[in-house]
Amino acid sequence: MLLMLFNIGDDRFGIDAQDLLEVLPAVPLQTVHGMPAGVVGLLSWRAALVPVIDLDLLTLGQPCPARLSTRILVVRYRPGPPGARIGLRVQRADDTATVNPADFLETGLTPPAPPRFGGVLPHAHQPVQQVLPEQLLSEAVRASLFSQTMPT
Amino acid sequence: MTTPDATLDGSCRLHIGVWGDRSCAALREHTHCRNCPVYIDSGRRLLDRPPSAAQIEDWQQRLTAKDQPADDARTAVVVFRIGTEWLALPTALLREVIDPVPAHRVPHRRDPRFAGLVNVRGELMPCIELGRVLNPAPSAARAAQSWPRLLIIERQGEAWAFRVDDVDGVHQIPHGDLRTPPVTVGQGAPSFAAQVFSLAFTFVSLAGGGAQGRAVQLDAVQPQLRAAAGAIKVQRVSGDIVLLDDELLLLALREVCQ
Fold this sequence. Notes:
The complex is a heterodimer of chains A (152) and B (258). Chain A has helices at residues 55-60, 139-145, and strands at 2-8, 11-16, 20-25, 39-45, 48-54, 71-76, 85-98, 120-121, 128-131. Chain A has 152 residues and is mainly beta. Chain A has one domain (2-145): CATH 2.40.50.180. In chain A, strands 1, 2, 3, 4, 5, 6, 7, 8 and 9 form a nine-stranded mixed β-sheet that branches. In chain A, a hairpin with a 2-residue loop joins strand 4 (39-45) and strand 5. The radius of gyration of chain A is 15 Å and the shape is globular. Chain B is α+β, with helices and mostly antiparallel strands and 258 residues long. Chain B folds into two domains: 4-63, no CATH class; 75-257, CATH 2.40.50.180. Chain B is 22% helix and 34% strand. Chain B has helices spanning 4-9, 12-15, 27-30, 37-45, 53-64, 130-134, 223-227, 246-257, and strands spanning 74-82, 85-90, 94-98, 114-120, 123-128, 149-155, 158-164, 166-174, 193-206, 214-217, 232-244. The longest helix of chain B is centred in the N-terminal third of the chain and has 12 residues, at 53-64. Chain B is elongated, with a radius of gyration of 27 Å. Residues 208-221 of chain B have low confidence and may be disordered. The A-B interface holds A 24-28, 43-47, 65-69, 92, 94-95, 125 and B 37, 44, 46-51, 55-56, 59-60, 63-64, 66-67.
């Protein structure tokens, strides 16, 4: 299993590369007002609009710093309608790791509300926790992102 | 040993690493600085800079551009000139393009289409006068400037060389642009014309070498050469180019070499 690694705050996280469609630089986004916290705007990507969630803002309340290593990961969003995609703006998206999925240790913790994260993997310098796109957003946020039918 | 300051920005590579006096103890483990985590981290830290306004604008332009439709099938062809006629061959057939090497005539071979044998890096292959294969009575018309080269083609281990007067380069031709040739195109040898396409391209010859003027593709021309505008002859070439039928051509080549 190939993980795309990035940071949320100072902690290392990884997302399964199978869900990853493209890694983009953090280009300016079209702001959408009145969206839930964490949703920072719309990315115009390959002639489509993709809602972008800043994971630092979503989890820590502090947006990603403007750095070259801050990037937008366009990922498949399976809980949404068919063909749904979301963009995840993350910092220090600068590495990948090939890991064995069996090595993930379950945390045994379930926060009362999303964002929830997957298992933790002891890794070279810093443990890596898995980000599962389907567990990032609450029902209400998901409904506000994909209220209308998506073009497939 | 490394000082904390030097390891912090990775400049230890210049003092005690492989670009310095190689006294770093970690070199024994990593062999080269590029395998050392200190060096790798210092490289990553380059990405901590904020992006410049020019970079952001460049990214945005790339992202808003629509994708080329993937079903737009294309054929890659190499475009070259023999006499005054521009021709094309599928690149699948092409092995390389080299500067001309002398052909050794073979005794008792008087076929004008067969120029002899050429030695391409130790490999002997027949050199064919493609112009005479296509058109048994070629016109004497020659372009003023040319950079003759040898086109080497190969199919299933068999290789042939052609003398051509100019090579423009490889072009991607959408399948929609390929047309069946009208009977008047490729006079004398219409059977070799598999398809015809229209192409407009800029062909640049460097006139500096006199009769041995050199031709290069426009994007390969160095800025300093562009400055010497007198030496450059920019030529807009546009018109119908004949894409040769590779199967028929190979049949003819085998016949010549028999």
